[in-house]
Each structure stands twice: as structure tokens, then as C-alpha cells.
């Protein structure tokens, strides 16, 4: 098979990327809903929930390999024409997700106070952080199941179903959070519990959809130990890659926490917006994972080259567009979350810096998706560690000087939004300069 014509290739990318964009945006919308509802309770509530969210996202984020390892495995098998093998890979990924989710839920619930203390939280901020973590742990198994199930569908070149499920989950999440936080007076804990319930609803829908398909492919529902271990082996490298990213985020939050509640609150708002935009940019990366995995499984090297070049350009262009949007809305976005003028001003500066970094972010997310789709997990892990070693000294420099409010948030986002992402762009671009990362066949 030769590479598709440019127009046909563009349609293939968009057919996966546009629904993926909707589904990916729905995920940070869960966080945005929490922050918007909690933000009007007070600065301490917002700062505590922000800290709790960082810890929760770190734990769940390390498990992102459940989607990232399942997608290319299913896509490769599908590309080679072996649907039974594709569904078996999905089954084993889901089984691993449930097991890991139960372990993380127990550890997170009982370890919440120590985790909040380790992040530097004190007083009321500490209490709200613990509440958010503990009530969120009820939904961790469901969150991981959703990751694995979404990976299966992406590998099957289906990004529309996750869009519909995520949309239903988001609508339920808003309603649950509002009722639990205000009419029932559960404060920060209510927002976390509402999200947990919504995640379980999504997980059950995915099981209802996928179990019959697995049976239809003549696969037993009993997971294969070798399949689970294989997913875990690939996932270990991807986990190390994700760990390096999460350590960078934790270190950033730690620096923000040291600058006071105002800086932490504003940083959390900017980071929430970053997460929203990152998931939007990641829509192209999801398309890359699915398409690259399928074409490599089918042995189409030419199509892989064309996909990589095209989507890299698209990533940069989309980054320019999202950056322009952020620059326009920066003066107004803080008012959506808080009435505090100081937090609004600091948020505005952080969002402007984030806007300037968006083209770099676009390239990073696309190339990351290409290499994940190719199963190049080992390189991604090593590159992540190198990038972390470059970034940490930037944060050390920031802590050497006294900053407050606008100044602190500004320097933190110069280091993260520009410095850290540029380092990632360099390591990923260097990898795709030749064909060393390509492995053809199922």
C-alpha cells in the first residue's frame, strides 16, 4: 500500500482527531467543573482542591499506559487482520486496569494525609486537600478502566464512542458536583465524590459495549497472564516516561506552594487551562497512535512517513491557533473561577505565557503520539528522564529569588511552558529524524 493522497490522508486524520478532541476535552472539563464550583467557596478550598487534584492526577496519570499501550497493540493486530488478537489485547488491558485501580484506591485513601503534608499543605488547605483525595479514591478503579477501554476503541479506529460516553459523563458530573457541594453542603468532598460517581457510570457503559465484542471474536473473558504481563512490560517504560512528566508537574506545584496560597491558587487555574489545551492538542496525537500503529502492523512504511510529516505540521499550526485564542481570553478567564483580583491578575500573566508556548506544545504532543503508536516506549522513557534533568535546575533558580503573586506565577510558567516543553520538543524531534523507531509487522 502506498501513502494516501494528501486530501485522503487529511480526512483519515480528521475522522479520528475530531471525535478524539471532543472526548479529550471532556476529561479536563471534569476538572474545570470542579474548580469552577469549588473556586467560589474560597481561596483555601481552591488551593486544597488544586493540591489534591495534582496528587490524584499524578497517580492516575502514571497509569495512562493502560490506554497508550493498548491502543497500538490493538491497532497493530487490526492492521495485520487478526481481530481475535486485537480483542484479547483489549481484554488483558482492562483486567490490568481493574487490578491496579483497586490497589491505588486503597493506598490513596489511607495515605491522603501524608501525601498532602509531603506537598507542603498546612492548616485549612491541608484539610481540603485530604478531603478531595479520599473522596476521589472511590472512582480510581473506574478511571483506570475507562483509560483501558478507551485505548481499545482507539486501536479499533473508533474515537466517536469515547466522545459520546465522555459527554454523558461530563453532564452527570456537573449535576452531581453542584448538588453535592451546595444543596447538600459537602464542600470540596462533594466535588470529588460527584466525579467518582460519574467515572463509574462511564466505566459500566464501556463494559456493556466491549464485553459482547470480545465474546463475538471467540475470546474468553478470562484474562491471559502472558497478555497482562506483556501489557505491563510495555507499560513499565511508558510509566517511567509518564513518571518523569509527573515529577516535573509535582516539582512545579511544590515551588508554587512555597510561594503562598495566592500563587498556588493562580498556578492551579493556569495549569487547569494548560490541561484543557493539552488535551485539545493531544487529539492529533491520538490519531497518530491509532493510524501509525495500524500502518506499521500492515507493513506500510511509506504511509508512516507521510503521516508523521503531515501531523507534525498540523500540530504546529494548531498550536498557533490555540495560542491566539488563549492570548485573547487571558484577561477574562480568571473571572470564571474566582472573585479575587490578585488571583485574576496572576492567572492572566500565566495564560499569556502559556499562549506563547502553544506551537511548541502542538509539536510535542504529535511527536509523542507518533512514537507511542510505534511502540517506542523505551526511548520515550529515556528522553523523559533527560528532559526532567534539564528542567529541575530551572525551578531551583526560581526558588533562589523571592517572588509573589504575578511575578511568581510568571516565572514558573516561563520555566514550564517554554523551557520544559522546548526540551521535550528537541528530544522527540531528534528521534524521528530517521527510521530507527519504526518496527513493521504485527
What report would you give on this structure?
By secondary structure, the protein is mostly helical. The chain has one domain. The chain has helices at 6-39, 43-61, 65-68, 70-79, 83-118, 123-136, 140-155, 160-181, 187-216, 225-258, 261-298, 301-333, 341-373, 377-399, 406-431. Helix 1 (6-39) packs parallel to helix 8 and helix 10 (225-258) runs parallel beside helix 14. The radius of gyration is 21 Å and the shape is globular.
Key phrases:
single chain, 442 residues, 84% helix, globular, MdtK-like, DinF-like, MATE_fam, transmembrane helix, cell membrane
* Global Rg: 21 Å
- Percent in strands: under 5%
- Give the N-to-C terminal Cα separation: 16 Å
The backbone outline, from C-alpha atoms, is: globular
Topology as H/E string?
HHHHHHHHHHHHHHH
Largest sheet features: none
Number of strands: 0
What structural class do you assign from the helix and strand content? mainly alpha
The percent of residues in helical segments reads over 70%
Number of domains: 1
Q: Report low-confidence residues grouped into runs of 5 or more.
A: none
Q: What is the helix tally?
A: 15
Mean pLDDT across every amino acid position: 84
Amino acid at each position: 500500500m502506498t501513502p494516501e493522497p494528501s486530501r485522503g490522508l487529511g480526512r483519515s486524520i480528521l475522522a479520528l482527531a475530531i471525535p478524539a478532541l471532543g472526548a479529550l476535552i471532556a476529561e479536563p472539563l471534569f476538572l474545570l467543573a470542579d474548580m469552577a464550583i469549588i473556586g467560589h467557596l474560597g481561596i483555601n478550598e481552591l488551593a486544597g482542591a488544586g493540591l489534591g487534584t495534582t496528587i490524584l492526577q499524578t497517580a492516575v496519570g502514571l497509569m495512562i499506559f493502560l490506554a497508550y499501550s493498548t491502543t497500538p497493540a490493538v491497532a497493530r493486530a487490526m492492521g495485520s487482520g487478526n481481530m481475535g488478537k486485537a480483542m484479547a489485547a483489549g481484554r488483558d488491558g482492562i483486567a490490568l486496569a481493574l487490578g491496579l485501580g483497586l490497589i491505588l484506591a486503597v493506598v490513596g485513601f489511607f495515605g491522603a494525609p501524608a501525601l498532602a503534608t509531603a506537598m507542603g499543605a498546612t492548616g485549612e488547605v491541608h484539610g481540603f486537600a485530604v478531603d478531595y483525595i479520599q473522596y476521589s479514591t472511590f472512582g480510581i478503579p473506574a478511571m483506570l478502566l475507562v483509560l483501558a477501554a478507551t485505548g481499545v476503541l482507539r486501536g479499533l479506529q473508533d474515537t466517536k464512542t469515547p466522545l459520546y460516553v465522555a459527554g454523558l459523563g461530563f453532564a452527570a458530573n456537573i449535576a452531581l458536583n453542584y448538588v453535592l457541594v451546595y444543596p447538600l453542603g459537602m464542600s470540596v468532598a462533594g466535588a470529588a465524590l460527584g466525579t467518582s460517581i460519574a467515572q463509574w457510570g462511564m466505566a459500566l457503559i464501556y463494559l456493556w459495549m466491549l464485553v459482547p465484542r470480545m465474546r463475538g471474536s471467540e475470546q474468553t473473558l478470562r484474562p491471559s497472564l502472558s497478555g497482562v504481563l506483556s501489557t505491563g512490560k510495555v507499560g513499565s517504560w511508558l510509566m517511567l516516561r509518564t513518571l518523569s512528566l509527573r515529577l516535573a508537574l509535582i516539582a512545579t506545584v511544590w515551588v508554587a506552594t512555597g510561594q503562598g496560597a495566592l500563587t498556588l491558587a493562580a498556578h492551579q487555574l493556569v495549569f487547569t487551562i494548560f490541561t484543557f489545551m493539552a488535551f485539545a492538542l493531544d487529539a492529533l496525537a491520538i490519531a497518530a497512535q491509532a493510524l501509525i500503529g495500524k500502518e506499521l502492523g500492515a507493513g506500510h512504511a511509506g504511509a508512516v512517513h507521510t503521516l508523521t510529516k503531515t501531523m507534525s505540521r498540523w500540530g504546529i499550526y494548531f498550536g498557533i491557533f490555540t495560542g491566539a485564542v488563549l492570548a485573547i481570553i487571558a484577561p477574562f478567564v480568571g473571572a470564571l473561577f474566582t472573585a479575587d483580583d490578585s488571583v485574576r491578575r496572576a492567572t492572566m500573566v500565566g495564560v499569556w505565557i502559556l499562549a506563547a508556548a502553544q506551537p511548541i506544545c502542538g509539536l510535542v504532543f504529535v511527536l509523542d503520539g507518533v512514537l507511542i503508536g510505534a511502540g517506542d516506549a523505551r526511548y520515550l522513557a529515556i528522553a523523559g528522564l533527560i528532559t526532567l534533568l534539564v528542567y529541575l535546575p530551572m525551578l531551583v533558580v526560581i526558588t533562589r529569588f523571592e517572588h509573589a503573586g504575578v511575578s511568581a506565577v510568571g516565572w514558573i510558567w516561563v520555566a514550564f511552558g517554554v523551557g520544559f516543553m522546548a526540551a521535550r520538543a528537541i528530544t522527540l524531534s531528534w528521534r524521528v529524524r530517521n527510521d530507527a523507531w519504526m518496527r513493521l509487522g504485527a
